[in-house]
Amino acid sequence: DIQMTQSPSSLSASVGDRVTITCQASQDISNYLNWYQQKPGKAPKLLIYDASNLETGVPSRFSGSGSGTDFTFTISSLQPEDIATYYCQQYDNLPPLSITFGQGTRLEIK
Amino acid sequence: QVQLVQSGAEVKKPGASVKVSCKASGYTFTSYGISWVRQAPGQGLEWMGWISAYNGNTNYAQKLQGRVTMTTDTSTSTAYMELRSLRSDDTAVYYCARKGWAGFDPWGQGTLVTVSS
Questions:
Q1: Across the interface, which of A44, A55, A93 has its CB nearest the CB of B101?
Q2: Phi-psi map region of A16: left, alpha, beta (phi>0 left; psi -120 to 50 alpha)
Q3: What was the pLDDT predicted at A92?
Q4: Which residues of B touch A (CB under 8 A)?
Q5: Which residues in chain A have Cβ-Cβ distances shorter than 8 Å to B97?
Q6: How does pLDDT run across B8-42, given as a tens digit for each residue?
Q7: Rounded to whole angstroms, how far apart are CA atoms A100 and A105?
Q8: What is the DSSP letter of A55?
């Protein structure tokens, strides 16, 4: 199985800061990488798909980049409503389907 | 709008089974798959498996092989996830999510399954 290593596990930043989260795959996954936001007590929400594509309706301060094994998720200017836990997720659609989540990054306001 | 609505919370004893439902609306059910993801209290997300609503093909996470079964009822646009031989570490919120080519969107609201004697 493909392992996803996400860092940091937690992060404290101020409103307006640029925030970066990284995710590393244990093998080449091309651009088959998604990013989710989960607020407390809520279901996750898809923000970025295929490494760099912004889901419809998601603010443009969110972005993603990378391919192969190394990926980055960025919030360009942190807003109070961005407080959440963020997860990366790899997907391998070739049968048998295999999906793995990163461990998550808990983002707090400083 | 596209929506997935899950069944309510369950309390089960160790060794029992649980079956969670996920009713889809707002899209053509058979055009997408449904994945199931669980989240233990205070923990991260764990993918459990996937079912094609088109033909019923399934893929399960290796860890759960033999204990989990995913099915669909296309007449009611409903997906089901049954987990057997429940243990205390199966206590979690269980989510269904529509899977397109790439990501999971949307997700159901989650179903809390508590396993306790």
A1: A93
A2: left
A3: 83
A4: 35, 37, 44-47, 50, 59, 62, 95, 97, 101-110
A5: 43-44
A6: 999 999 999 999 999 999 999 999 999 999 999 99
A7: 15
A8: P
3-state helix, strand, coil in chain A (%, to 5): 5, 55, 45
Are B88 and B60 in contact by the 8 Å Cβ rule? The answer is: no
> Who among A46, A95, A96 is closest to B104 (CB)?
A46
Q: Shortest CA distance to B107 belongs to which of A39, A64, A98?
A: A39
Question: Which tens digit of pLDDT belongs to each residue from A38-82?
Answer: 999 999 999 999 999 999 999 999 999 999 999 999 999 999 999
**Burial status of residue B25 (CB atoms within 10 A of its CB: 0-12, 13-18, 19 or more):** exposed
A93 pLDDT band, cuts 50/70/90, is confident
Burial of A25 (0-12, 13-18, 19+ CB in 10 A): buried
Q: Is the pLDDT of residue A97 over 90?
A: no
pLDDT in tens, B73-116: 999 999 999 999 999 999 999 999 999 888 999 999 999 999 99
Minimum distance, in Å, between the CA of residue A34 and any CA atom of chain B:
6
Q: Sort out which chain A residues have CB atoms less than 8 A from B37's CB and list them.
A: 44, 101
A66 touches chain B (CB under 8 A): no
CB B57 within 8 A of CB B51: yes
Among partner residues B45, B105, B109, which is closest to A46 by beta-carbon distance?
B105
